[in-house]
Sequence to fold (816 residues):
Amino acid sequence: MATWHGAMDHRGFHQGSFNSFQSSSSDEDLMDIPGTAMDFSMRDDVPPLDGEIEENRSYNGGGIGSSNRIMDFLEEPIPGVGTYDDFNTIDWVREKSRDRDRHREITNKSKESTWALIHSVSDAFSGWLLMLLIGLLSGSLAGLIDISAHWMTDLKEGICTSGIWFNHEHCCWNSNHVTFENRDKCPEWNSWSQLIISTNEGAFAYIVNYFMYVLWALLFAFLAVSLVKVFAPYACGSGIPEIKTILSGFIIRGYLGKWTLMIKTITLVLAVSSGLSLGKEGPLVHVACCCGNILCHCFNKYRKNEAKRREVLSAAAAAGVSVAFGAPIGGVLFSLEEVSYYFPLKTLWRSFFAALVAAFTLRSINPFGNSRLVLFYVEFHTPWHLFELVPFIMLGIFGGLWGALFIRTNIAWCRKRKTTQLGKYPVVEVLVVTAITAILAFPNEYTRVSTSELISELFNDCGLLDSSKLCDYKNRFNTSKAGELPDRPAGEGVYSAMWQLALTLILKIVITIFTFGMKIPSGLFIPSMAVGAIAGRLLGVGMEQLAYYHHDWAIFNSWCSQGADCITPGLYAMVGAAACLGGVTRMTVSLVVIMFELTGGLEYIVPLMAAAMTSKWVADALGREGIYDAHIRLNGYPFLEAKEEFAHKTLAMDVMKPRRNDPLLTVLTQDSMTVEDVETIISETTYSGFPVVVSRESQRLVGFVLRRDLIISIENARKKQDGVVSTSIIYFTEHSPPVPPYTPPTLKLRNILDLSPFTVTDLTPMEIVVDIFRKLGLRQCLVTHNGRLLGIITKKDVLKHIAQMANQDPDSILFN
Fold:
């Protein structure tokens, strides 16, 4: 995935300004990222948590020395306080504390009246209702995407005259003039050459079909990239790196909004139909999370609490994988293993329910007409032998090598796209890659079909009635057992298919590197599985022929007699697909379960486990990051990886700000600063929060206050009550400080003060600090010495320090 980054060129976002409390402020500096093409002003699709904030209201402090209305902040909650700016990290501890307080209040009130009891029950049930709605909506959208993509893919080759809405397969199903051997040929289905020049024979007809294939591919790709660029820049890529970052507590307004959902659904169909080397499985996770985020706005419990919303998004991610692969259990494990940052037991149950409902909904729609949830469901009947673990492990090694190669080359290409003129021309890039893909794909029947259909054919276990070239064996009717075919010598069709598959493998390996990361929806699961499935099928056919011609060898004679069905090439394809997908994503448990659910065979778990673990070991030896983590680092997202160990012997004082020779830490005092003093600090700094101390001399810590809360509170005071002026004293204590007579009213802001900020001493080892940030999801941690405030460590400081210790560029961490 690649997202347009750059200077935040939206309203209220500029250096040295607090003109909007929607402006993005970091714990250090505002972002200044050159070369953007993304429009961050489209944020109406996901408003801030408290929708009462007026979108365009700006804050100018009311003018120094002016006298406006004010309010007492102890009497009523202030709209907007407790929410977050765009591109900032949430405070997990505060959010969980707020939810506990809310739940405690509802529980106490439920004992007072029947209505309060009903409200308590409905609050408890709302989570399950939300999961039901997410599952229904995700399953419905997945069915719509599957049906539309299948029809539009076939549209590149021809059209059904009996009903334009039928794809090729359904068109011939309804025909009365079709035979079983030629079930894909029927008079109702006309190729473009038949429609244009009334014949399907000859060189000119081939050229017409070739031209129309490329033309439709370019049209679909152009529509996809244009819609993304104009309406929803966030709809590009797979979305999984951003989902992981959002689930870790980062705010990206609009990324899971209604515009993104609408455009991603439409453009995903177009991108898949264009024939590019991409899949819809990764983007379906993004689509499901968009559904979850939008539906959260129907429930106050989730709308007003960012931590609770992320529990819902974890369950939505599980539903997305459930409908992508028809694997509900695999979806839950994928959410747990790959994308979720915080995954309590309650979320596990709800994820399971959401995945169940989503899979049931998709099964009810039956988009492929085979009563299955995926196009490439297969069943194998021949057991595997212990010796076959050797080729399975070889496939695992290939998968690990391919994964490491792909990640390095794709990241290098994406970095080139971000840092050169190439990134300024996303439409041209997409059209060029589409044209190259379509021109090279059409002559080869295995690249001309959709990647899902290719995988389905590669997984297939050849039967008597199969007419595929991959099943063109000699003596095909010489069966040893009913319903079982022995290993047979390969015919001309098999050898021809092997050459075509080898060319397909080379094309898929190369073209996927340039396709993933373009400004269109693009998943990586299907292309990775296709690479592995082709390699696996090639190896499987080789092993099958070796066993047939040399069944008397020592490695075969103990378990493979002549005329027996010893080797299943389709199983090798499946193991290869798992190995390559594992090498790219570094998934293990969830990958094996997804592949097992695809095949319905428990006995093949051991080969899948062997290949998945081997591919992970090999890929990890060549590079520690999976593709999604690599894209997170490339985009500079503040994601603190929980799987990595921090083994360096540094202390908190080595990382905290300010450093030696730096300006002193900016602090507020608890009862001696005026409104004008605070406004000056806000206008001259870009920090997202300020420590509050007893006095500048003592530096004894009182608490921590967020910049956003300060801005909103002061603006509300100026608007709603007369008396507060620039010389009014702001105090954070329980009681008002003594003031001389005839002074302006004081302003009490204790309610927005965090009285229990996390603190560590200056000699705390950084490995403990990193663990605290990971496990508690902190935004910042204050550093003290004998109770006196020394400095502050933000999440960004931790990420920069980890990058520095790994000899990486610390300035690559772009966001708060």
